[in-house]
Amino acid sequence: MQQGSGALGWLEMTALAQAMRSSLWLYPIVEIFHILGFTLLVGTVIAFDLRLLGWSRSLPINALAKYLLPWSMASLLLIVPAGLMMFTAHPHDFLNNRIFLIKLALIGTAGINADLFHATIYRSVQRWNVEATSPLPARVHALISIAIWTAVISCGRLLAYT
Ligand code: HEM
Fold first, then answer.
1. Ligand 1, from 103, 109, 145, 148: best to mutate by most atoms within 8 Å of Cβ?
2. Domain segments of the chain: what residues?
């Protein structure tokens, strides 16, 4: 492990970081919570995207959004703390890992894509809420979302091999 100075050096010497490295079970248990969290996030996001792409047209899009999106947000309460705990174990290694940086950049891009959707095309949802083809921008948003989250998961999994 690279012994560092500054904030990262301090972080990796904290009691939490040392426990994440030395305990046999803590890191895997924390990773399980991370996995539970992003399963809920990506599962709810892609279920909504598939509706935007035209599946289950009888389901009102705004009702589905009202049900699914709070779960997507709640999942961050598992994903982020668990991700940060794992990060503390090897902060230099992760920050020197291009796949990790790409993963974080993709997560940011997914957030911008979702915000843009809600701030623009979603405002007219009443016009295409049920039994209608979603407007092209909404379908493009959904395809971008599915592609980005697939890439985030791929980056996350590849972290163990890079
Ligand atoms: C928000 C959406 C996120 C998704 C979809 C996601 C996805 C993943 C996936 C698929 C893995 C691999 C799990 C495994 O194979 O066991 C992983 C591992 C990891 N993630 Fe995330 N992650 C997210 C956010 C974060 C955040 C915000 C951080 C914190 C900085 C983070 C830090 C990590 C770390 C450190 C690992 C462990 C790598 C390892 O030891 O193998 N993740 N993530």
1. 103
2. 6-161
pLDDT digits (tens, 9 = 90+) for 88-129: 999 999 999 999 999 999 999 999 999 999 999 999 999 999
Pocket of ligand 1 (CB under 6 A): 31, 34-35, 38, 41-42, 79-80, 83-84, 86-87, 94, 107, 152-153, 156-157, 159-160
Q: How far is the CA of 133 from the centre of ligand 1 (A)?
A: 35
- Spatial contact of 138 and 121, defined as CB atoms under 8 Å apart: yes
Name the token pair of 135. Answer: 């407007």
Task: State both tokens at 81.
Answer: 């703390």
Q: How confident is the model at residue 3 (pLDDT cuts 50, 70, 90)?
A: low
Written as one letter, the residue type at 25 is W
Which residue has 């009443």 as its token pair? 126
Q: What is the pLDDT of residues 56-89, one digit of tens each?
A: 999 999 999 999 999 999 999 999 999 999 999 9
Cβ contacts of 148 within 8 Å, gap of 6 or more: 106, 109, 110, 113
Q: Which atom of ligand 1 is nearest to the CA of 149?
A: 5
